[in-house]
Amino acid sequence: MGVANKLPGRPSRRHLLTGGLAGGFLLAFHLPVRAANEPVPMAYANEGPFAPNAFIRIDTTGKTTLVMPQVEMGQGIYTAVAMILAEELDADYAQVTLQHAPPNDKLYANPIFGLQATGGSTSVRAFWLPLRKAGAGGRALLVQAAAQQWQVEPASCTTSNGQVIHAASDRKLAYGALAEAAGKLTPPGDVPLKDPKNFTLIGKPLKRFDTPDKTNGKVVYGIDAMLPGMKFATLAQCPVFGGKVGKVDDSAARKVPGVQKVVVLDDLVAVIGDHMWAAKKGLDALVITWNEGPNAKISSQDIWDDLRVASAKDGVVAKSTGDIAKGLATGDRVGASYELPFLAHATMEPLNCTVQFKPDGCEIWTGTQIMARVQSEAAKAAGLPVEKVTVNNHLIGGGFGRRLEPDMVVAAVRVAKQVDGPVKVVWTREEDIQHDVYRPVYRDTISASLSGGKIVGWKYRVAGSSILARWLPPAFQNGIDIDAVDAAVDMPYDIPNFRVEYVRAEPPAVPTGFWRGVGPNNNVFAIECFMDELARKVGKDPIAFRRDMLGKAPRLQAALDLVAEKSNWGQALPARVGRGVSAQPAFGSFIATVVEAEVDEQGEVRLRRVTSAVDTGIAVNPDTIAAQLQGGLIFGLTAALYGEITIDKGRVQQSNFNNYRMLRIDEVPQIDVHVIKSGEAPGGIGETGATAGPPALRNAIYAATGVALRRLPIDRDLLAGRKKS
Amino acid sequence: MATLKINGEQKTFEAPDDMPLLWVLRDVLGMTGTKFGCGIAQCGACTVHIDGKPVRSCLLPVGAVRDRAVTTIEGVGASSAGAKVQKAWLDLEVIQCGYCQSGQIMSAAALLAATPNPDDSDIDAAMAGNICRCGTYVRIRAAIKRAASEQS
């Protein structure tokens, strides 16, 4: 695993991330990382003579190639990264082209993770300063080159739109003309960054780089890789987690026209064909006997029973302030537990990976959120040194955390080892859903005490899987998963006696992984649902109740005020219609959301309107921020309304979009996003909507019906009175 | 050997009659703009036009197409409705990951060709078969209205 502090050749330990950014991930998590603007080995600098760092190349025609350290999976990061770099470089934005970064944990590590990973809504937060410094450093060299040529002081030169300008003598030189000379200069140390008031790109709703080719079929995702002589494969893994292949009768499969080969490994069977149709028909024709193993006895009920037992025990204390015993002994005591289900990612682009073994190594085509780890895991599976594995990354047809795992690449490499020539392995949707790495089940138990209309004690216990302990072991310390308690330990409300505990409870058999919204998804839901129950207990309006405890979180308070105004909070509604609110400081952004929903007599829920107000600090591209929040809200609301993976006899019971439902356009209402102007450092945005939507919807249902749902997805039987909680 | 007229061009290839058009396009002809999403006509990512009507190509046997005209995302811009939809998609920056958008654009182009000024219920009926996991629905709706308002 490409864990940062085990990598050789790292220079001095740097603690890039210090206070001032909300989000437990950022505050708690310091891994060493190489300076992002260190000079690049020339091997990478093949796009022009001017390559002052890992991110910028300019050729003699002025063509400016920006190398993208984070992957584009729809969140708009390529455009944001380009805008930040071009801003400080004063590049000619019209001449900018983008390039995927190669796998390289040293040059392209995400400073928050210490490895080359895109996730956790970290990209802009993590790279904001490194990219600005890289751009400014490049600009300084171009200025120096021009000043030398003109024999003037660098300070007397300015830059604009890809040119160095000496106004006093009315001279100009384009960056392309300076590329050779600037490429010979030594990169400077830190140079001054622009005053944000002088930004010309950042803050504008500029068009995205990646979208034109997504309208005409030209875009190439991993699944679209085509190579001469390529074969196509699809596979079956044991339906029971951890099961193995027993016996395979492939006599019928081999007769399917176009089937070339059946590959049997210890845990999966793949059929190789001339096209996916042959592979799929061949796979359907196989008679496979699985050795299902001990997990074949496991069901969802067992998993929930185990989790409820685990969550009743004391956990490791993740945060404690005041005197929790005294706090809970004061005033009226209230308690509740909230439960969240397993969820699949269901990216629109099914899992896939193309592999070609060659005499001197192995080449891979895929779309991944974790480039360097894919390379190292593929090398292990291939039995090759890392440098013999080439990884070609692609634009990604949906990540949501699924492509933070290398399992699909490892499986494809193992299959491809048995195949002559290139092979593209494509998962069917059924395999994709039934062999996901699932958002864990969580159970959150809260005890609070109320006095004088305010919360005086708050004890919050998260019980659930630790993804970090597996995915990034150095980050799992003292029994605390800082992701699992994120947004719980740094809750915005001002409560004098406060304690957060974590109980690590791994579900048997079911693999767990990051899912859009990660830890805050769970914690914001439980906290915000409980806040509404407490508000009702003290007879206060839910927004007023929150507002009174947000004295130390003025940015969130302002978002709450704005969303109240924009959503017509407080205005009368018809019967069985309610408005619900959620407020969150997660991922370094401050967001308040109101969902308006209607619940009919049958317990069906209809979304009527969604309104969010967001303070995400400096909005690099406000149009992208609105789009991410809209889309994230739909992602979260989809899960709240429909999302649940259940297990029976060790198998996932859902298989495709017919029984793992998605919100569709006819169910989605108007969604208005109001971006608050701010001069603070940028926050994260990609996952915020997924976290904001579910509690606001649940609270709208609570307002409409009085039913306090404490599990997701929403239970229509409870809402219709067909069953009692 | 079989023949299809795709985006106005005759294409000759070898494939069994029961092979869904999707895999002929993608794996035999190398036209990868049309996407595989679910294989059971639930998500709409594979939408193409057959004689101008939107069809899920993942379940359509190629042998059933016969001499009818196939239009894919690679060719839809040649029609007035298709070009207007593509432009509106960029003007309103609809797209995120983009994987479903070939299918969304094909469904929207077929809608506009048949119903030049669709209302919300027309949009719901025509577009509800296309899933977008990134949640671009709000902008899809707005972009269809924008495209409808553009004079050809």
Show the helix and strand layout.
The complex is a heterodimer of chains A (725) and B (152).
Chain A: H1 24-28, E1 56-58, E2 64-68, H2 77-89, E3 96-100, H3 123-150, E4 158-160, E5 163-166, E6 171-174, H4 175-183, E7 231-237, E8 244-249, H5 251-254, E9 259-264, E10 268-273, H6 276-285, E11 287-291, H7 300-311, E12 316-321, H8 324-329, E13 332-340, E14 352-358, E15 361-366, H9 371-382, E16 389-393, H10 407-416, E17 423-426, H11 429-434, E18 442-451, E19 454-464, H12 467-471, E20 497-504, H13 518-538, H14 542-547, H15 554-566, E21 577-584, E22 590-599, E23 605-615, H16 622-642, E24 647-648, E25 651-652, E26 670-675, H17 688-705, H18 716-719
Parallel strand pairs in A: 2-3, 7-17, 15-16, 19-20, 23-26
Antiparallel strand pairs in A: 1-2, 4-5, 5-6, 7-10, 8-11, 9-10, 12-20, 13-18, 14-15, 14-17, 18-19, 21-22, 22-23, 24-25
Helix pairs in contact in A: 2-3, 3-4, 9-10, 13-17, 16-17
Chain B: E1 2-6, E2 9-13, H1 21-28, E3 47-50, E4 53-56, E5 69-71, H2 80-91, H3 101-114, H4 120-127, H5 137-149
Parallel strand pairs in B: 1-5
Antiparallel strand pairs in B: 1-2, 3-4, 3-5
Helix pairs in contact in B: 2-3, 2-5, 3-4
Coarse shape of chain A? globular
- List the strand order in the largest sheet of chain A: 9-10-7-17-14-15-16
Number of domains of chain B: 2
Output the helix-strand order of chain B: EEHEEEHHHH
**Helix fraction of chain B by DSSP (H/I, runs of at least 4):** 25-40%
Identify the CATH class of the largest domain in chain A.
Alpha Beta
The CATH superfamily title of the largest domain in chain B: [2Fe-2S]-binding domain
The oligomerization state is heterodimer
Count of helical regions of chain B: 5
Structural class of chain A: alpha+beta
CATH architecture of the largest domain in chain A: 2-Layer Sandwich
Tell me the number of structural domains of chain A: 3
Coarse structural class of chain B: alpha+beta
CATH fold field value of the largest domain in chain A: Aldehyde Oxidoreductase, domain 4
Describe the strand arrangement of the main beta sheet of chain B, using strand numbers. Answer: 2-1-5-3-4
Query: What is the overall pLDDT average of chain A?
Result: 93
What is the terminal separation of chain A in angstroms? 45 Å
User: Largest interface, and how many residues on either side?
Assistant: A-B, 66 and 58 residues
Question: Share of helix among residues of chain A?
Answer: 25-40%
